[in-house]
Amino acid sequence: MFSLPQDNVGVVDGSDDEHPLVLQGVESADFENILEALVAQQRTATLSQRGWISVLKLTTMWGMHDVRRLAIKELTKLKMPDVDRVVYGKEYAVVDWVISGYWDLANRKNVITTEEVSRLTLPTCRKVWQAQISVSNSQPGGETSSHVLDDMFSSEVDEVYQRGQAFGDEVRSPRPSFIRHVK
């Protein structure tokens, strides 16, 4: 960027402290976390869930597939709560999180809290409640949790899977689904 010919406009953004290069939608903490993750490719980084989420955000935004995979791997190790897996899985196209998050939401005994409703959106919560009722009312020999969830969320899972492929995620055959989800 600095080696490109410049107009006669004076000082270029990013050339000194008084004229910073502004990256819209990127906070300094996000940038610090991605730098930590880049260094961490040689060793294990000690980022929090929030830190790895910011790494995932930037690597997804900037098409940094290898570091994106590292962030997904590290976040998966952190055992995020079900709602986080659904929200972040949908936002950053991580199909395995969406599947496992919905699986756990549909099979948990406690109700979705008001805070969780605001994060998941009301239409999503309605589908989760329907899934919880179907799963809890299923009869022996009847439709399994996997089939109920696959019927309710398969189009959403497919969309997240396709977006993930655009970000360099592996192509799988057959497509990810709840039917093959093993808890």
Please give a quick description of this structure:
Helix content is 60%, strand content 0%. It is built from eight helices and no strands.
Polypeptide structure, described:
- The structure is a single chain.
- The chain is mainly α and 183 residues long.
- It has two domains: 24-79, no CATH class; 82-182, no CATH class.
- 60% of the residues lie in helices and 0% in strands.
- The protein is built from eight helices and no strands.
- The protein has helices at 28-40, 49-62, 65-77, 82-92, 95-107, 114-120, 122-137, 145-166.
- The model has no long low-confidence stretch (mean pLDDT 84).
- This is BTB domain-containing protein.
Summary keywords:
elongated; 2 domains; 183 residues; mainly alpha; 8 helices
- Oligomeric organization of the protein chains: single chain
Note the run of SSEs as H and E. Answer: HHHHHHHH
- Helix percent band: 55-70%
General form: elongated
Major sheet? none
Radius of gyration: 20 Å
The tally of strands reads 0
Name the beta content range.
Answer: under 5%
Number of helices: 8
Number of domains: 2
Catalogue the unreliable spans: none
- Helix and strand content put the structural class at mainly alpha
CA distance, first residue to last residue: 49 Å
Describe the SSE topology.
Elements: H1 28-40, H2 49-62, H3 65-77, H4 82-92, H5 95-107, H6 114-120, H7 122-137, H8 145-166
